[in-house]
Amino acid sequence: MQRSINNAYSTSIETSRIAQPIGTALDRFIKNHQDQFAFASGELSQLLRDIALASKVVNREVNKAGLIDIMGAAGSTNNTGDQQQKLDVLANIRFTRALMKGGEVCALVSEESESYVDLNNEGKYVIAIDPLDGSSNIDVNVSIGTIFSIYRRKSIAGMPIQEEDILQKGSDQVAAGYILYGSSTMLVYTTGHGVNGFTYEPSLGEYFLSHPDMQMPADGKIYSINEGSANSFEKPVKDYIQHCKDNNYTARYIGSLVADFHRNLLKGGIYIYPATAKDPQGKLRLMYECNALAFIAEQAGGKASSGKARILDLEPRHLHERTPFYVGSKNMVTKAESF
Ligand SMILES: O=P(O)(O)OC[C@H]1O[C@](O)(COP(=O)(O)O)[C@@H](O)[C@@H]1O
Ligand SMILES: [Mg+2]
Ligand SMILES: [Mg+2]
Question: Which residues are in the Fructose-1-6-bisphosphatase class I N-terminal domain (predicted)?
Fold first, then answer.
């Protein structure tokens, strides 16, 4: 049976989550859910608002990228060897500034910064962020995104930041989400009480609830993988791709992780970035790409794996650690793992 949003709204949400009608402003939604947070003191709510605010600024720049001088390479590389795009650097500045001003974050881990950045020593949260995801698509007007993971610091606020504050497992996330700058701009996040999606209304400058209690279909017929690197895929991956083809699945690959993930979240499907000859550990980064999407996938009934282990159980050893990534519909990920 096709679950309509209203049906989903009237059944599952009311029983286990606070019911919010479609069109609820993000601010009100955060306020009404505050007491769900373990540490319901308003700080996490404020942090989510700070992220939403920064995303509105980045969204404005993304929308007019062709008109202002933010197209193209920045002329520098980041610590995972990627050619930084001007918009990578700009988005990193916007989010860092907003989180600095917000005051809730003590340390920021970013794809665009070699080591973590101290922000507010009194802050109780640590954030890991991919300020601009899908960099290869910036100049060609294809959907791009921002990905974020939020952790509670382990050390006492005001004390120096410890490694244990930074290198936390995905299962320790208190919230995670992404912003998709696509045909419309959406913010999708979880605090461990289901997944909700909000669509940005530019003329009002606000996000409104458009996708309450998002559920990832347990099965799908879409597979997303860059087959251009297929020659260097391990045999199990090649066999799984053949399985998809034998079952007439549809191949879809946007090349922006957030956009490929979002489509599969709505329609069902699997996204795979496996180990390759070029990237023996895979390309995607555990702390600011995989953990957040794994948390959202699981909260929406999906699954996320390295092919061998649950992503959220992986112990990060360093900030920019990579991992093979299999994420999407539960039965499809289980099938892929079985190869
Ligand atoms: O071009 P490839 O090797 O398929 O890689 C594409 C993947 O790399 C990424 O662009 C990596 O993210 P960044 O753009 O944030 O570096 C993903 O968004 C995308 O899924
Ligand atoms: Mg990325
Ligand atoms: Mg990036």
Answer: 26-212
